Amino acid sequence: MEKTLNELAQLVGGEVVGDGEVKILGVAPIEEARKGEITFVAHPRYLPKLNQTEASAIIVSPKVSEADKPLLKVANPYLAFAKILQVYVHRPYESRGVDQRAWVSATTKLGEKVSVYPFVYVGDHAEIGDRVILFPGVFVGDNAVIGDDTLIYPNVSIYEGSRIGKRVILHSGVVIGSDGFGFAKEGKRNVKIPQIGIVEIGDDVEIGANTTVDRAAMGKTVIKKGVIIDNLVQVAHSVTIGEDSIIVAQVGIAGSTKIGANVILAGQVGVADHVEIGDNVMVGPQSAVVKDIPPHQVVTGSPTLPHKDYLRTVLTLPKLPEMWRKIGQLEAKVRALDAGQTVKRKTSPQSSEDTRDPDQ
To answer: What is d(CA 145, CA 136) in angstroms, rounded to the nearest whole number?
Structure first.
């Protein structure tokens, strides 16, 4: 595909400095870009490479004033790069139909132009939308629903009754609708609580490899529209994740937790059960969320603290041994002063009558 720099600028709402008619054939990192490709600079440390790259054009922030290559100035170079990259990687969809080595129930409702690869299993009364792609090894249980233009990579398991929205991407090894972790104790015996709910995933959700989303004990586990979940994440039963939230790798979210919209949980965050996290909250890496967090907070730590308080705490830790030594010295001085005052009181003359003038 070939686009001019002016055409790309129109796509991302940017300003061209230099030759806007230069032809762009692709996108590449700044160190690897060649003639005919566009690259980007999103971090100041790459600015020295502006005049070293062989790229035909560079996406930059408005702060960059000049270079020996045509520039595309935008407020957010990384976002512009993402949008332009989508132009060059997009390929028209071609349906493969249903491979004869797949097993699709006669009661399944298949949409138009689907691609069902070998060794796919689709159960009774499932619904598969238009232009859905099911790669080899995908399991779709009875009564499951998959929306239009959804992409399911190899070896994904979608349990019975699960509902997947439109334009969803599930990467390899994802499990949707496995039983929630529910048991009651009878003496030493663990009694399983049947998990009879479902999982409901909204439109435009992407879930990374080997992530699990458990079905609700009753009702729904809900992943709302636009949520992005990384690899190796555990979402427990009856959890709700609000729109456009981002869940980074190795996060564990315990049962019945409610997460608001546009929340970011950084890597290895652990969230206790029945916690509520408000909209627009950011939780730092390896934090433990054990109580509710109001909206619009930035927190870090285990347990979580406001981020600035956490930073002060971390900066204080290396100083604790010296502080402990000084406190010991101060305590010794206080004891010495107390002892001296006691001796002074015992040795001072005693008077049976106070002769001081009260007006003095």
So the answer is: 18
CATH assignment, 97-311: 2.160.10.10
Q: Summarize pLDDT for 11-44 with one digit per residue, the tens.
A: 999 999 999 999 999 999 888 999 999 999 877 7
d(CA 168, CA 226) in angstroms, rounded, equals 9
Which one of 237, 274, 296, 307 is the catalytic residue? 237
Cα atoms in the Cβ-side hemisphere of radius 13 Å centred on 129: 16
For residue 201, what are the β-bridge partners? 164, 223
Low-confidence ranges of the chain (pLDDT < 50): 351-353, 355-356, 358-360
Catalytic residue at 296?
no
Contact 115, 138 (CB under 8 A): no
Residue 360 has a pLDDT of 44
Residues of the chain with CATH 2.160.10.10: 97-311
Cβ neighbours of residue 142 under 8 Å, at least 6 residues apart? Answer: 123, 124, 125, 126, 160, 161
CATH 3.40.1390.10 maps onto the chain at 3-89
The two tokens of residue 50 are: 């502006």
Per CATH, the architecture of 3-89 is what?
A: 3-Layer(aba) Sandwich (3.40)
Query: Rounded to two decimals, what is the model's pTM?
Result: 0.82
Alpha-carbon distance of 203 to 37, in angstroms, equals 33
User: Residues 45, 50, 51, 57: what is their CA dihedral angle, to the nearest 10 degrees?
Assistant: 170
CA distance 270 to 288: 5
71: number of Cβ within 10 Å? 23
Q: What pLDDT is recorded for position 349?
A: 60
What separation in angstroms does the CA of 166 have from each of 129, 142, 205, 347? 8, 19, 8, 91
Residue 249's pLDDT is what?
A: 98
Give the pLDDT confidence of 275-298 residue by residue, as tens digits.
999 999 999 999 999 999 999 999
